[in-house]
Prior knowledge:
Elements: H1 13-26, H2 30-37, H3 52-69, H4 73-77, H5 86-96, H6 106-109
Helix pairs in contact: 1-5
Amino acid sequence: MNAVSGTVNGWSEWDLRFCLLCVADHGGDWEAFTERLFDPSAYGQSGSASNGEAFWSHVLDLRRRLDQAALDAAAVAGELVTTTGVAAQARRTVFKRALANNDPSTPMIKPQEYDWRSEPRPAIGMVFPYRRSHPTIA
């Protein structure tokens, strides 16, 4: 069984992956992790670099839910951070596989549901195609 699959304590597999990579690769710094999501070199030859917007949408939703639960990424990732091979497996799923083949979350499928104007942009300065007036994640 995949070490990061299903739902654990109410957190989805995407929640676990993103929390794990935020902590393991960026010391819990969500901004640095978000920048990585928009870095085309992170995706190599996979052709998955276009996933950045969908992933960011999920991260915004995840961070809102973490704030509501008064938790941080490390609390959700827990011992997965130090479990051999789990971070590498999460990196492969996020950066090397097509999103459509990995059961995308609702925020990934419908990023246009969020009002991007109210959220800080990743430092890479990506411009998003969705500019509709929808409620913010706030």
